[in-house]
Design a protein that fits this description.
- This protein has 37 helices and 40 strands.
- By secondary structure, it is of the alpha/beta class.
- Strand 25 and strand 26 form a beta hairpin.
- It starts with 7 loop residues before the first helix and ends in a 7-residue tail after the last strand.
C-alpha cells in the first residue's frame, strides 16, 4: 500500500537529506592543471596564494600546479589539452600569430625580466661583438634581443653564443663575458657572490614585452567559459594577496614549493623585484592592454619572426550580458554558451578573409552582440550556398547575411534587418546606354547561386541567367566579358571593384522588381531555438544609434573622391571659429627635437610639423605666442594668454585650468647620470638622492607622488639640469628620451649616460583652456585629420638619425627610432580613417583614380608600378635593404602585329604576362610597363638569385608554344637599386641594360654594369 508522507518530522528529514545530497552532487570541484613556465619560485606567488587561500576552491576549481619540465613545449601541451592552463612569455603572442589556437587570459608581468648580465667593461649592446655570451637559442631568436641588436646594428654573427648551463658559474669564473638572466633572480646571486657586472636590459632600448602570461586553448575557452572566468578571477585575487603579503608567501614557498632550495633572503629579493615587474600601482592586476599586445605583435613582424597579423580573438573577453534574460534564456545560455554562425569568406565588406584574418561589418556586429547578450559566436566559413545548406541541415546554429523569404520560414527564425542594400546592375564600359531591364533582353546576366531574387528574375524569362558560386567569380566574369551584366548588392561589388582596381565596370542602375526592393541582411536562427532568436533580437534592439553609425562608417562608408581630409564641425563650432579667427598657441621654447622656438622666432620641431598639417587640413589659424620657458608657458595658459599648448601631459593640477585631447605622441621617461655602472629601471633605487627636473613638468608631480624619498631639484632648462649632474650637484636628470638624447649628442657630453628607462611615459596631448569648452571638441576633431602615417613620418624625419660611435653617444638616436616605431603603433590603432558617402558619379571618378590594372594582361599598370617603386625605395632607405628591377621586352614584337594582326599580338601579350606571373615570387610585383615591355620589381635581391630568376624567365619564354606565332624570345635588362638614386635613374639603368641585350642579338640577360649586389 502507498505510504503517505504526512508526518512533519519525516518530511523535514527527507528535505534535509535531499539538500545534503544535492550539495554533495555540486560540491565536487572541477580538476584543472596549470603548467608553470619554470620551477617553483616567487615569480608564481599569485597562483600559490590563490590555491592556499582557497580562492580557486571558492569558485569550484581544484587546481594542480605543475613545474616546468626540461624540453617541454608548454604551448603545445595546452593546445593538445594535456593541461588546461599554462604560463608563458611574449612568445605566446608569436605562437598565436603563427596560427596556434590559444587564448590570452591575463598578464601579470608588465615588462620582461629577461636581460643580459655582462662584464663591467661592457656598457652598450654594440660592445657585445667579439664577446662570448651564454644565451639559449630560443632567447637569441626572441624579440627581446633581436630588436635590441637591430636597433644598434649589432652583427650577431660576431658574437660567440654558447648553450646555457642555467647557472651563473661560468660567468662568475670569467669563462664567458655575459649570461642571460632574469632580473628577478640572478642579480641577487651575483651581488651575494661579490661579482661586478653591468646589466644590458632590452627594455631600456624600447623593447617592452609582457611576461608571465596566463593562457588556455581556444577550444577550452569556448567550451568552458565559466571555468576560465573563475580561474582568472581567483588568480587575480591570489596575486593581489601575494603582493600585499610577500613575506607570508615566502614562508608558503619555503614550506611547500621550494624545489630550488632558495634561501629566505633570496625569495625576499625576488618578491621585491616581482613587485616592480607587476607594476600594480599603474595597471590593474592581470589586466591586458590590447594596444600593447598589438605593439608586441607588430614588433615580432618587424624583426622577421612572423609575417601575419594577430587575430582579434586571441584575447579572452569576459562577457556579461547587457540584456535582461528570462529564466529560459539564461538556461539556454548556460547550456549553449557557444553558437556557430554560417558566414561567408568573400562577402566584402560584410564578411571576408584577408591574409588569413576574418573581418568585416558582420564580425564587428557579432562582437557587439556578444557583449550585449553573453553569447560566444563561432564563425563557420563557406560560400553562400554552402552556408545555407549547412544552416538548413542544422550543422550551423545561425546564418548571417540572409534575406527574408517566405519559403525559408520553415527552418529559419529571422531577426530584424541589420542592414538594407540596394540591388544594383553593373555593366562594362562598352555596354552602351542602359534603359532599364529591357536593355538586358537576350543578354547574359550573372547572379549568385541561391540568391533570394533568382526566382523573380526567372519569371521575366527574357535574359540568360548565369549562376556563379562566389562574388569574385561573378565580378571577374563581367570584367573579362563572359557575361554582359551582373546583379548584386552595391556595397559588396563596390568593394570588389575598389580592392581589385577594376576600371572597365560601371553602375548602370538599380534592380526594380514588383516583389523585390532591397537586399535585407538579417541573422537567421534555427527555428527550434526561440530563446536564441529572442536574445539576438534583444541585442540588435539594444544597439545605440552611435554604435550603428560607427559600424556603418567603418565598413560601408565610401571614401571621398579627393584625398583631402574632411572634418565635420558643427554649426556652433564653425560660428565659434569664425568669431575666434585664430587660436593663440604657446609651446615649450626649448625642448627640441620635440619642439622649440628658433632664432627667427618660428615654432619648429615635431609638434610644429604636426600642427602645420592640422592647419592645412582644417583651415584653423594658429598664432604663436612666444614664451621664455616652459613655466612661463604654463603661466600664460593660466592667465588665458594662450588658448592652446601644443605638447602637454595631463596632470591633476593642470586639469584645474586645462582640458586635454587624446595623446597623439608618447615618449619614455629616462634618467641621465654620470654613473655608468648603475642600472636603473625603478626610481626606488635612487631614494634619498637628488634628481633635477624641469620646472613645471608633469614628471615632477608623478615622481613626487610615487617616490617621496627622492629630493627633486627644479631647473629652468635642460642645459641647467644636465650641468647640475655634471657638476655633481644632483645625482641625475629626468626628461623625455628625445630631447635628452639630442642634448647629450649635440654637446658631446661623453661623461653622461642614459642609466635607464622608467615605466612612466610622457603621453602628450594638445592642451586647451577649459573656460571655452568648444575648443576641446574642435581640436580633437582637427587632430584626427592628421593620419598616424603622417605623425610617424614626421617623427622619423626628426628622430631616425644613424650614428656610428659609442664615444659621442649618438647611438642614442637609434634608441629613439626604436621607441618611435613601437610607440607610434598605439596611435595607429587609435585613429580610424573618416569615410564620407558620395553619389554614384563621384564613386566612378574615384574608381578611375584608383586604376591599377592593365586590362589586357591583368598585370599591374605603369601607374601602380610607379607607386610600388616609390614605396620600395622608401623601405630600402629606411631598413637598409636592397631591391632590383627587371625590364623585359618581347623580341621583334612589331613583326607579330604586322604579320598576324593585333588580336594575335594581344593574345601573345597575355600569354607572356602569364609566364611572368607564374615564374615570379609572391613578393615580386609584375607590371606592364608599356607596349611589349614589362617590369618586375624584386625586393631583397641578391645577384645569384637574380641571375637564376632572369635566366629562368628567358628560357621559359623561349620554350613556351605561343598560339599562332609559335616561338617567341625576350631580352632582359637588370639593375639593382643604389641608395640615394632616384627611381628614374634606377629604371634608366635597367633600360640601358635592356638596350645592350637587344643589341647583343637579343634573347639574353644583361646586368647593369653598376650593379652592387654580390
Amino acid at each position: 500500500m502507498p505510504v503517505r508522507l504526512n508526518s512533519l518530522p519525516l518530511q523535514l528529514f527527507i528535505l534535509v537529506l535531499f539538500t545534503v545530497t544535492s550539495l554533495s552532487l555540486f560540491a565536487a570541484d572541477i580538476p584543472v592543471k596549470l603548467r608553470l613556465q619554470w620551477k617553483h619560485q616567487f615569480e608564481f606567488a599569485g597562483f600559490y596564494a590563490a590555491k592556499e587561500q582557497g580562492y580557486y576552491a571558492d569558485l569550484g576549481l581544484d587546481v594542480e600546479l605543475l613545474e616546468y619540465e626540461n624540453g617541454l613545449r608548454i604551448v603545445d601541451e595546452v593546445s593538445a589539452g594535456g593541461v588546461e592552463f599554462g604560463i608563458w612569455g611574449s612568445g605566446l603572442i608569436e605562437r598565436a600569430m603563427l596560427g596556434d589556437d590559444i587564448v590570452l587570459l591575463a598578464n601579470y608581468f608588465k615588462r620582461s625580466p629577461l636581460a643580459l648580465a655582462v662584464s663591467p667593461e661592457i656598457s652598450f649592446p654594440t660592445e657585445l661583438e667579439g664577446k662570448t655570451l651564454m644565451v639559449s637559442e630560443s632567447d637569441i631568436a626572441s624579440a627581446n634581443y633581436l630588436q635590441m641588436f637591430e636597433t644598434f646594428n649589432v652583427d650577431i654573427s660576431k658574437i660567440n653564443f654558447v648553450e646555457p648551463s642555467f647557472t651563473i658559474d661560468e660567468f662568475t669564473a670569467g669563462e664567458v663575458d655575459g649570461v642571460s638572466i632574469f632580473l628577478t633572480n640572478e642579480p641577487y646571486l651575483l651581488k651575494r657572490a661579490g661579482v661586478p657586472y653591468n646589466v644590458i636590459d632590452p627594455s631600456n632600448y624600447g623593447v617592452d614585452l609582457y611576461d608571465v602570461n596566463l593562457f588556455t586553448s581556444k577550444d577550452y575557452a569556448e567550451e568552458h567559459p565559466k571555468e576560465v572566468e573563475a580561474f582568472i578571477e581567483a588568480s587575480n585575487r591570489g596575486w593581489q594577496y601575494a603582493l600585499d603579503n610577500p613575506e607570508e608567501l615566502v614562508d608558503i614557498i619555503l614550506a611547500k614549493y621550494n624545489t630550488q632550495n632558495k634561501s629566505r633572503e633570496h625569495l625576499i629579493y625576488e618578491a621585491q623585484q616581482t613587485v616592480r615587474m607587476v607594476q600594480a600601482k599603474s595597471y590593474p592586476i592581470g589586466s591586458i592592454d590590447e594596444e600593447q599586445v598589438n605593439r608586441i605583435g607588430n614588433l615580432f613582424t618587424e624583426v622577421g619572426l612572423v609575417d601575419r597579423r594577430l587575430a582579434e580573438s586571441f584575447i579572452f573577453r569576459v562577457v556579461e550580458p547587457e540584456i535582461a534574460l528570462t529564466p529560459s534564456e539564461q538556461a539556454f545560455l548556460d547550456t549553449k554558451p557557444v553558437v556557430t554562425v554560417a558566414m561567408m569568406p568573400d562577402f566584402t565588406p560584410f564578411s571576408y578573409i584577408s591574409q588569413g584574418e576574418a573581418k568585416g561589418f558582420e564580425h564587428d556586429l557579432l562582437a557587439l552582440l556578444s557583449k550585449k547578450t553573453g553569447i560566444i559566436f563561432k564563425p563557420l566559413y563557406g560560400i553562400w550556398n554552402e552556408g545555407l545548406s549547412a544552416f538548413k541541415a542544422r550543422e550551423a546554429d545561425m546564418i548571417a547575411s540572409i534575406s527574408y523569404r517566405e519559403e525559408r520560414t520553415a527552418f529559419t527564425r529571422f531577426t530584424d534587418p541589420y542592414y538594407e542594400i540596394p540591388i544594383m546592375i553593373y555593366v562594362r564600359e562598352d555596354f552602351g546606354s542602359y534603359q532599364g531591364l529591357n536593355s538586358l533582353t537576350g543578354k547574359r546576366v550573372g547572379i549568385l547561386k541561391d540568391v533570394f531574387y533568382a526566382q523573380e528574375l526567372e519569371k521575366i524569362g527574357d535574359m540568360k541567367l548565369v549562376i556563379y558560386e562566389t562574388y569574385d567569380q561573378l565580378t571577374k566574369a563581367l570584367v573579362y566579358g563572359r557575361i554582359d551584366a551582373l546583379m548584386q548588392n552595391q556595397t559588396n561589388i563596390d568593394a570588389l571593384i575598389r580592392d581589385n582596381a577594376y576600371t572597365n565596370l560601371r553602375l548602370a542602375g538599380e534592380l526594380q522588381l514588383p516583389n523585390i526592393q532591397r537586399e535585407d541582411l538579417r541573422f537567421g536562427v534555427r527555428s527550434d531555438w526561440p530563446e536564441l532568436h529572442a536574445m539576438v533580437q534583444k541585442g540588435l534592439q539594444l544597439m545605440t544609434e552611435e554604435e550603428r553609425l560607427t559600424l556603418s562608417d567603418r565598413w560601408l562608408g565610401i571614401k571621398a573622391k579627393d584625398d583631402s581630409v574632411k572634418v565635420s564641425f558643427t554649426s556652433t563650432e564653425r560660428d565659434y571659429l569664425a568669431q575666434k579667427g585664430a587660436f593663440n598657441l604657446c609651446v615649450d621654447p626649448a625642448w627640441l627635437p620635440l619642439e622649440g622656438i628658433d632664432e627667427t622666432g618660428q615654432h619648429v620641431g615635431i609638434s610644429a610639423d604636426i600642427l602645420q598639417e592640422l592647419s592645412r587640413n582644417t583651415g584653423i589659424a594658429l598664432n604663436l605666442v612666444q614664451t621664455n620657458s616652459w613655466q612661463q608657458t604654463l603661466d600664460f595658459a593660466k592667465t588665458r594668454r594662450c588658448d592652446l599648448i601644443s605638447l602637454a601631459m595631463r596632470t591633476p593640477s593642470r586639469e584645474t585650468y586645462l582640458d586635454f585631447t587624446l595623446p597623439y605622441v608618447s615618449y619614455p621617461f629616462v634618467i641621465a647620470t654620470r654613473d655608468q655602472n648603475q642600472f636603473i629601471d625603478d626610481l626606488s633605487i635612487v631614494n634619498g638622492k637628488k634628481l633635477a627636473m624641469l620646472r613645471g613638468y608633469s614628471s615632477i608631480e608623478l615622481i613626487a607622488a610615487n617616490y617621496p624619498e627622492i629630493e627633486i631639484i627644479e631647473v629652468d632648462s635642460l642645459a641647467e639640469g644636465v650641468a647640475k649632474v655634471r657638476q655633481e650637484e644632483v645625482y641625475g636628470y629626468v626628461d623625455a628620451l628625445p630631447p635628452l638624447a639630442s642634448a647629450i649628442q649635440k654637446e658631446g657630453m661623453t661623461d653622461m649616460y642614459i642609466a635607464g628607462k622608467l615605466d612612466e611615459e610622457f603621453a602628450l596631448s594638445i592642451a586647451v583652456r577649459n573656460d571655452e569648452p568648444l575648443i576641446l571638441s574642435i581640436m580633437q576633431k582637427a587632430l584626427a585629420t592628421v593620419s598616424a602615417e603622417s605623425i610617424q613620418r614626421i617623427n622619423n624625419r626628426w628622430l631616425a638619425v644613424r650614428f656610428e660611435s659609442r664615444i659621442d653617444y649618438t647611438l642614442l638616436y637609434q634608441v629613439i627610432a626604436g621607441f618611435m616605431v613601437i610607440g607610434l603603433l598605439v596611435l595607429w590603432r587609435q585613429r580610424e580613417i573618416q569615410r564620407t558617402k558620395k553619389i554614384i558619379e563621384e564613386k566612378n571618378l574615384l574608381l578611375e583614380e584608383l586604376a591599377m590594372t592593365d586590362m589586357l594582361t591583368g598585370l599591374y599598370n605603369r601607374h601602380k608600378m610607379d607607386q610600388a617603386l616609390t614605396q620600395q625605395k622608401a623601405l630600402a632607405n629606411r631598413y637598409n635593404t636592397n631591391f632590383a628591377v627587371m625590364i623585359l621586352d618581347i623580341d621583334h614584337f612589331k613583326r607579330i602585329n604586322d604579320t598576324y594582326g593585333h588580336n594575335v599580338g594581344d593574345t601573345s601579350l597575355k600569354a607572356f604576362a602569364q609566364i611572368l606571373r607564374e615564374q615570379t615570387r609572391e613578393s615580386d610585383l609584375v607590371g606592364r610597363w608599356g607596349g611589349e615591355e614589362f617590369l618586375i620589381l624584386i625586393p631583397e635581391a641578391d645577384k645569384v638569385s637574380l641571375e637564376q630568376m632572369a635566366e629562368n624567365l628567358r628560357a621559359n619564354v623561349e620554350r613556351y608554344p605561343f598560339d599562332v606565332v609559335g616561338q617567341l624570345t625576350t631580352s632582359v635588362g637588370v639593375a639593382v637599386y643604389h641608395p640615394g638614386e632616384s627611381i628614374r635613374e634606377l629604371v634608366s639603368r635597367a633600360d640601358n641594360a635592356l638596350y645592350r641585350a637587344k643589341n647583343s642579338d637579343r634573347n639574353c640577360v644583361v646586368f647593369d654594369t653598376l650593379s652592387a649586389v654580390e
